[in-house]
Amino acid sequence: MAAQVNPRSHKTFALPLPDGFRRPLGDDDHVLRARVLGCVLLLLSLLGHPALWGADRPGPSPRDDVSAAYASTIRPMLSKYCSDCHDADRSKGGIDLTPLLRSSVKIDQTFSHGALWQKVATKVASLEMPPAKAKEQPTDSERKALALWLKSFRRLQAPDPGVAVMRRLARSEYTNTINDLFGVPATAWNAGVDLPPDSIGAGFDNSLPPLLAEKYLLAADAVLDRFIVADQMNLQLIPGQVPALIAGAEDKGKPEGTSRLFSTSADIITAVSLPAEGSYVFRIKAGAEPAGGEPIRLALRLDGEVIGETMVKAPLLKPATVTITAKLSPGRKALSLLYVNPKAVETVAPVPVKKSAASKPVAPKTRSVVIESIDITGPPAKASSEVQRRLFVAVPGKGVSPKAAARSILQAFATRAYRRPLQEDELTFLMGIFDLADAQDLVFNESIKLAFKAVLISPQFLYRTSEELPGEKGAAITAIGDYELASRLSYFLWGTMPDQELTRCAQDHTLHRPDVLAAQTRRMLKDARIRHLATSFAVPWFNLDKLANLQVDEKRFPLMTKAMRQAMYDEGVAFFLGLLDQDTRITDVLDSDYAYVNALTAKIYGMNDVKSTTMQKVMLSDKNRGGILTMPGVLAVTSMPTRTSPVKRGKFILTELLDETPPPPPADVPELNAQNTEKNAALTLRQKTELHRENPSCAGCHRVMDPLGFGLENFDAIGRWRERDDFGLPVDAVGELPGRQRFSTPDQMQQILLRRQDAFVRSLTKRMMMFALGRTVSGYDDVVIDDIAEAVIANGHHLDDLIQRIVTSYTFLHRHTNQ
Length: 819
Hints:
The protein is an alpha+beta fold.
């Protein structure tokens, strides 16, 4: 090696030299070596120059490569193997590949057919298509080429977080959020509360119809009436400032008015809000100028009904207090104080002693009343609840005005309820409600309660909205803010508002950091509230939400009691939560060597040593048991009321585990029960089921569904093992799937499903991504789903890993700025 110095960096570097240079050198040799090295350096620089190799000329882009492969390989392959059955004229199984087969179609135009591409790839990879009877079949390399091309095709799409709508809280989310906001269990407030039903589908309606608003209003009343105790009413009315009807004419009073003097028919009219049921004391300070030998009477009326009368005996210039007490119900009432007996009496002087003198008349004397004040005192206030003491972060008193206290209370409450910092205009709006109530003489607690009610029926509370970020209008897509991220994460895993720890991370603007987000997710997975993920995600996935109202012939299946249905439900919840343990794998859904049972479900499993009413994990010795497919609850909801249903069970496997939803059956194909004709009376269930396949439109789906369903025929309609079917014949659980995959027991069928565990992991990833985002997935979502599924498979098939990757995915962490 010979050392050279780079004149710019002054660092030495080595160049390899031919053997002839490795000898003692003379002066001429040094000159020669310098020239040779110069030539070498020049040559190396030329060889490395981009222009020499055309690097400045753009080569084929990934889009060009995918498009070329589509034209040269993929489209011809689909035309060769698929077009005979899946063109616009035939479209067997409801699949029309015409949009993918036209020669004029450009690669960009096929992006909108992502679901169709996925279905094609799945059917081809699973050997379901082309059907076995087809003369020509793709080679293994062609099937793999299609799968690889589809991945490359998807990655041409620009990153896009997808379209999301403003989501209304689901019933369970609303209940959980109220519980956490007030710090109470649902049983403390929701008795008799009729919450609005959930919308059907992946998303939620973003409108609030009047009937829906009324239901939320009633729910808010139920919560607030339960926890916000009215304080004692102490109200003083100044008559001179209160409207009145005087001899039928309206007098609105004056702002600076004090007392009122009436000498004719008069009625002071106002409205008061009584905070609670109980005894109210009305103290009226009044004086009278009597005349005519009759004392002046005042009547107190509420909503037009007289609740008491009193007489005024104090002189006009020295008013005194009279009292009326009445037991009243709460609410806003019309209050009036009526001068009952006004009268002008003409009096005369006494008759003079001398009869010759005439009597002289005296000026008429008017019977008058002056009213200086009306004080109203309500029943003693009940002790405030613990909830109220927590929510009322300030109280009126020395140095704290009612308005200042209200501002502090409303700011704290609304910030938690809205799951983000309160905007100034929102606080102004809430304070306006408080001021309006206060101006109507509501007591402080009632005024606060009215503002709380406005919070609980506001879109900011009832809907999960986006957090508006500074400068986001300059871009089409933005990373979501920490407060929005906290809500997304909390409602995904817990189905409720962020807790104090998540909120603190959002306030510190650290939640978006990968290490913090990962740590918070791990913490939440260990919290008891993770049960929400099981009840709201896994239970509908396993179809166990149908158990409560499932139609079952209870005479034939007396074990199917209400308690048994609940136990079946609990088994599914316990199984899913068990998948969060590090020693389990999500592929245990397909087959496992354990189950969760209690004393009830143990009877179905044939276990006699389980006595506990709580779920417990037991190891299975029977290889035909394990996974969700052999759970009694799953087997029950995929059966008919009186018998098993291989079709429903097979469809469950395809739809829920492999994301292969069959098209609806043709309208002209009768149900199995309708096939119980005299001709078919002797047919077995398998033979009756096979009648479906006589219709070519049904064969494509049933040739996969039926064998899978019959693989579970050893289990009756509530999941008990049996050797003979409903007809008394030996159970025939033999089946064959595409690719000559034969089985004769549930265990063998489950082992075949395990060979497709990659498809299952992708199906689960897609399903959970939809749940986390609250919408269907499409477009770029497929790229994210593929990446997550591949990483989860490579990392050991763990559920907590899948969840971590979803919450750190592009689609979970981004949104469009106009949403």
